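As a warm-up, study this chain.
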Amino acid sequence: MSSRLCAVSDTPAAGNGAEVILPCQYHDLSGGDRLSGEQRLMFALLVDAINVYQRGVMSSLAQAHRLYVDAEQWITTQRSAGDALSFDTVCDAVGIDPALLRRRLIEWKHAVRRRHAPQARLRLSITPRTPNSNHRRTRPSDRIFVPM
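Now compare it with the structure written out below.
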C-alpha cells in the first residue's frame, strides 16, 4: 500500500473544535500535489473540455452541441506557444503530448459515430397522395359568399 494513504483514528482530535485536515486529505492520491496551482487549473480546463467534447459528440440538445463545437474547435486548433490557454500549451503544462491526445480524441469521436450511425439514419416514408392534395386550399377570407 502507498505511504501516502492516511491512517484515520477512531478517537477525535484534541483541540478547540477546529477540524484537522491531513495532507493526504488535501492532495488527491493521483499525484496532484506535484502540480502547481496554475497547472492544476490548466488540468481542470483540459478535463472539462474533454468531458464537454465527449458528452456533446452525439447530443441532440442545442446547448450541448454548441459547447461541443466550442470544445472541438479548441482541441483541434493548433496555436502558437504564446497563447497561454491553447490546447497545446495546456497539455504541455501538465505533461501530456497534445498531438497524441488530439489524435485519440478524434479517433474516439469517429468510433462513436460509426457505432451509432445506423440509429442516426434519416428514415423516409412514401405516403400516398390524397385525391385533392394538389388543389389550393382557400383561407376563410378568400371564400366568396353567394346569397341564395
